[in-house]
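job 3f2a | input accepted
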Amino acid sequence: MKARMMAWCGSVSLAAMAMYLPQSAFAQESTAQSTEKSGSGLGEIIVTARRTAESMQSVPVAVTALSGSFLDSQNIVDVTSVPQFTPNLSIMAQPGSPTAASVFIRGIGNQLPSAAAEQGVGIYIDGVYVARAAGALFDLVDLERIEVLRGPQGTLFGRNTVGGAVQLVSRKPQNEMGVQVKAGYGRYNDWSVKARVDTGYIGGSNIKASIAGMHRQRDGYVDNLLQPDSRDPGSLNGDALMINVQGDFGDLTANYAFDYNDRRSNSGYFQMIAATPLNQAYFSQSEALGGDPFIISPTRLGTGYENGFVDTSGNLRYRSKARIFGHSLTLEYRASDAFTLKSISAYREFKQDTILGLDGQGNLLGKVIDFSSPTLVSVQPVALYNGNNADQDQWQFSQEFQALGDMGDISYVAGVYYFKEKAGENLFQLITLPIPVPYLTLYGYDQKTADTIAAQNPGLDTVGLNLTPRRPFQARAESMAAFGQVTWRATDRLELTGGLRYTHDKKSLVQGVTPTSASSGKVSYNNVSWMASANYNLDDDVMVYLRASSGYRSGGFVAGSGALAPSFRPEKVKAFEVGLKSEFFDHRLRINLAAFYTDYKDLQISQFAPSTGGVTTIVVNAASATLKGIEAEVTAIPVDGLTFDGSLGYTHDNFKNYDYRDPATDEIINIADEVRLPQAPKFNAHVGAQYEMPVGSMTLTTRADYSYRSTVYFHNLDRAAPFNRNIRSRPDHNLRARISLSDIEIGSGRLEVGVWGNNLTNDKNIDFGIDFGSLGWAAASFKQPRTYGVDAKVTF
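job 3f2a | predicted structure (796 res):
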């Protein structure tokens, strides 16, 4: 609450200050990611893939950049839509959490939303590493661009970037005053309002600031019969704020940035897809006992029941809540035209309190074991799975120093990095385990108790056991690194680059419900990652490159697993990439290609591990694997006003070995031929078209985008997930479109209005699934149905 009050007080005070500045016509600097090379050609895209601003066409690495203006025009407000436009990228929202995302590039990432789980893809905002995927999904209020770097980025970006990195670059304050307001309304009572104020240079000083804020909310898109529309599955109520202040003090530039997100949501309906006959028979008795009906369906439902959970304060809650905020201060000192010093200091924090109704059921009743009953059995509330993670929190501090310079034909980046964090969870769970009465002794009950239950309850085939496991832990991490990268322009056409990074990591974990049951451990790791590349310009607009690199994902402990589990080792990778970056026909055609081969050792595999002790995910070094694939991106302007763009990604995995302990024989066997990479489609593709035409002094813009993604599995082994195929996400087809009229003069400002639609073919596909394995059932959520709406933006 204190952080929220500080954020909004800052917003109000700066906005009020802007109102007292001298009024002037809006004259913002361009914040698009490109500047035109010619009046009708493709623009130059600037990225920071090598920690310095460069043209995307000159960087020897596979990178996709989406401008803030494009994201705004497509009404993209978080990163889950970015894969529709990016080869070999997968981002999916985690169930139950307003802010957790699982991010994969080229088949490598992390599905575990734990506050202590290491990512395989690094997320950065203005150069600051966002350590936890559990806090990586936030509203994109005011971005200049998103950069997706594919392949290991261990030299310049550090650990946990074995798959790649996603950089979010905020829009900096502009030189002159300006105001922009956008509002929209769509299906499911989905409405939002977003505003940005630029102060320009304040009072003739060398300080300028910007404030951007957004509120958005929507009703759910599945009718939960236990809640009003505003609390239905898929509903959201969120506020976001970004403040940027920049001071230009001669050779020194200072940028302070603050971002804040507050989200309250009911995740998409996680409906029951499949269950064993034992589960179906037991829970289907609920309605006859006076409870809600048991619901199971392999296809998307429009109506259902979703129960809540009594939280630690004794309140029955259905909604999850989360808060994220971060501060960063970037100082850049240009000692000369050839030497710059840079400092990035940052503090970030996230906290969430989630309700985990993952079985898609209402208030079920069942016959359970009850030693206070004369018959040892009574009718009580039951649940296949429900829970409350309260609280899940994390804070982090990081400091990075960089030196960037040129010495003739040599340019370099060198630096040191420090990172420290503390994270924790306190997960309460409710699980009802159906037990056939003849097998009660196998679950720890003595024969006398089993005989009494059978005798006192004639005809009772199955009885439930209510379990309430709790999984608390506290984790700490500290990381230090030194890095350097040198580029030599050997000739006018040939460029050679090499880099090294040394990293030292320390981790500790404490878990347990009480001090007497707590367990703890410490581990530390050292790593040296390297990179070498060569790029050659065949002519001014065609460049080919070769790149070899290594990376490392830190090891650690399985947090939340009860007793301290053995630590898992770091994951190491070597990658090789060949690529082409080219433009033709006076910059009217751009073709970028890449082919890669990646070798992973000690691949960290997340294995969902439900049991009577609670649901958790363990991480094991079970495999060695190679991944190979291709990526292509094409943009063309055949005639003025008409633009076509498209992309294609393909990833093929080959497991060399996968060690698995056979529960029947207790032997370790190699089942490499059975393994799938979770959340890793073999193919994804996109094609888009945009046409702009003048209508008097106005501009009419029409754009349509079609994206395709092949089948995705959510678990790596069918042996451990018997319903894995039932909950797979089949090939996904998505069509979105928007028509807008812009440059409408209204006084001293300009207005843009638009009509848009998403999932226009109403594709009914699973967007996330979990097989609860030994508990005997699986559930999944489905993508949002067809949506459409209108928006309007005014700029002064």
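job 3f2a | Confidence is low (pLDDT under 50) at residues 1-38.
job 3f2a | closed
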